[in-house]
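Researcher: I'm preparing a figure for a lab meeting and need a structural model of a single chain. I don't have an experimental structure, so a prediction will have to do for now. The sequence is pasted below. Please return the structure as tokens so I can convert it later.
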Amino acid sequence: MKIEIFSDYACPYCYIGKRHLEAALKDLGLEDAQLIHRVYILDPGKISHPERTYLEGLNLKTAEEKQHAANTFASITRLAADIGLAYHMDTMKDIATEMAHRLTLWVQETAPDQTQAVIDRIFHAHFIDNKDISSKEVLLDLISSLPLDPAEATAVLDDPSRYVDQIFEDDDRAQQLDLDYIPFFVINDSDHISGIVNTEKLKAILSQNS
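Model: Understood. Here is the structure written out token by token.
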């Protein structure tokens, strides 16, 4: 089974959706499914501001806006807790994700068996540890214990042109698929799943494609 996963490291629902997908695959005995990382950047061209939180970056003015954000953050935090993730939404940094995606695409090309470990570490660093995942030093530290070439990883991160073509290709594909929400799963080049779907529903859909 092949599953393409369109996501962004800035998307809190994407980490939650990934966990539900992994749980469904495990329950179905499909842990050997091929998972492919596809890039869908929510805010292309965004400039990182690791000195502030994402909430501060929203620059909310009214009490109504602030309450809406608080309610949304609380709802997302509960969804994450349901799948075993301890999100800290209030203190996550206001950062860009392109560098993290470029690193992930390099891993997927050169050491595909390490791709999901890298993705997990980057998501965890952002939403749980609230690290600056737009920082080269942070990203290199996240992969330091994995069997990856640190010199080549550094070279990829130092060259902003590396894997940008792949990011554009993934974006073109997303437009062709009329992608509206992420995470967005493409199963065996046919079935599509958009947004968060819980483990049991995913199992039902995956069973039809296995």
